[in-house]
Amino acid sequence: MRIAPSILAADFANLESEIKDVEASDIDLLHIDVMDGHFVPNITMGSNVVGALRPLTDCELDVHLMIENPDQYISDFADAGADMISVHVETCPHLHRTIQLIKEKNIKAGVALNPATPIEIIEPIIQDLDFILIMTVNPGFGGQVFIESMLGKIRKAKSLIDERGLEIAIEVDGGINEDTLGLCRKAGAELFVAGSSIFGQSNRSIAIDKLRGV
Ligand code: DX5
Ligand code: ZN
């Protein structure tokens, strides 16, 4: 299991020390939430922030694009140092092409699904994916409550992957804490994004240990 702290919940005035703080707990992935104020009702950060963080950390940078027309920005985020990029299926009328654009950059390609979007939508291109990001809240804000009915979607995703003998990671994002992580893990998730349950806590190493079930 891998844990990806979401810097959305970090102190933006001190991002470098915030990252060092979680890296001390053997974190190998950082989740970066990019929001455009159109696809989701919030604006966060762009590829310049990814570029600024890149030299500060050895962690893989997991960029979650919650933006319309992601094709236009994939190259910028990849060149800035993203190791993984996920796009929302709801924003991609030409999803196969978008996934190929990410892969041409030699980084991992993922598709994110809103809670109301059925998993079956990715079936035709599932073999092209490195990971599937199942939203367990409606995207746009940190600190929301986990939607329990998403556990069924995680189980379905796991069966679609296993039936085909594929190696695709299932990532979950939203409301992940020490109670919900175990439920998602049991359902088949392997990569856990956590914002407020890590950066919202004063002792991040205790928070990460709790998530790991230590
Ligand atoms: C929500 C973002 C999440 C967010 C999770 O739209 O995609 O990555 O940072 O925050 P928590 O863990 O606080 O629900
Ligand atoms: Zn996210």
TrEMBL record:
Reactions catalysed, as given in the entry: D-ribulose 5-phosphate = D-xylulose 5-phosphate
Protein keywords: Carbohydrate metabolism, Cobalt, Isomerase, Manganese, Metal-binding, Zinc
Cofactor(s) listed in the protein's UniProt record: Zn(2+); Fe(2+); Mn(2+); Co(2+)
This protein's GO CC annotations: cytoplasm
MF terms in GO: D-ribulose-phosphate 3-epimerase activity; metal ion binding
Enzyme Commission number: 5.1.3.1
UniProt xrefs under Pfam families: Ribul_P_3_epim (PF00834)
Active site: 33 (proton acceptor), 173 (proton donor)
Kinase among keywords: no
Cofactor note: Binds 1 divalent metal cation per subunit.
InterPro entries xrefs: Aldolase_TIM, Ribul_P_3_epim, Ribul_P_3_epim-like, RibuloseP-bd_barrel
Sequence positions that bind a divalent metal cation: 31, 33, 64, 173
Pathway the protein takes part in: Carbohydrate degradation
Binding of substrate, residues: 6, 64, 140-143, 173-175, 195-196
Biological process (GO), any one: pentose catabolic process
UniProt superkingdom: Bacteria
Functional summary from the UniProt entry: Catalyzes the reversible epimerization of D-ribulose 5-phosphate to D-xylulose 5-phosphate.
Similarity comment: family membership: Belongs to the ribulose-phosphate 3-epimerase family.
PANTHER family in alphabetical order: RIBULOSE-5-PHOSPHATE-3-EPIMERASE (PTHR11749)
Protein name according to UniProt: Ribulose-phosphate 3-epimerase
Native source species: Scopulibacillus darangshiensis
